[in-house]
Amino acid sequence: MPAFKEEVTRELQLVHRSYQTMEPDVRLFINTFEAFIHAQETLDTAKANSLLKFLDEIGALNVKTIVEEIISNQDSKEVFVPFNEGDPYLSVKEIALLSNVSQQMVRRACEEGKIEAVRGKKRSWMIHKQKFMDSELYGRWTRNKQDKWSILEQGAGAFTENKEFLEAVEQAEKDRKKMNKPK
């Protein structure tokens, strides 16, 4: 593995230390980026050429362009990836992943009109990404998760740093064991 990829792998380990405090869409990006970095390592020249030929045959020219750019710059620190934002609509599953809630919660919010959504193919809900991310509901769903993690982290720190509390827990455990001893 070239030195640059080793640096990126080490830095991703640092990123994971703050993973729970990140916005859901940022965590999704980090996961995708990490998978992308690891996937690059598995693609040897023969597999890459086979993939390029397949992409050409099926007409996936934009994907082929991106793969060619990645392959030609594997040892470089810079890769130009052409990006087209594409479809502004997301599925219920994608919104659930982005928001860190269940798909059922997303469906229910669509049905109740809390999320601006339209029916797509097979009566599935399609949600405009930007409108959703600007909505009060997105803010509430993500903020609630972040607030809960923050409170749990603060609480864990307060308990483990409080000597009196730890002594009281140890004493309570000793007392419990004494009470449960057979006579």
Search tags:
single chain; Multidrug-efflux Transporter Regulator, Chain: A, Domain 2; extended; 183 residues; mainly alpha; 68% helix
Could you walk me through the main structural features you see in this protein, from its secondary elements to its overall organization?
The protein has helices at 3-17, 24-41, 45-58, 61-72, 92-99, 103-111, 129-133, 136-161, 163-180; strands at residues 89-91, 117-119, 125-128. It has 183 residues and is mainly α. It has a domain at 86-183: Multidrug-efflux Transporter Regulator, Chain: A, Domain 2, CATH 1.10.1660. It has a 3-stranded antiparallel beta sheet with strand order 1-3-2. Helix 3 runs antiparallel to helix 4 and helix 5 packs across helix 6. The radius of gyration is 24 Å and the shape is extended. The mean pLDDT is 76.
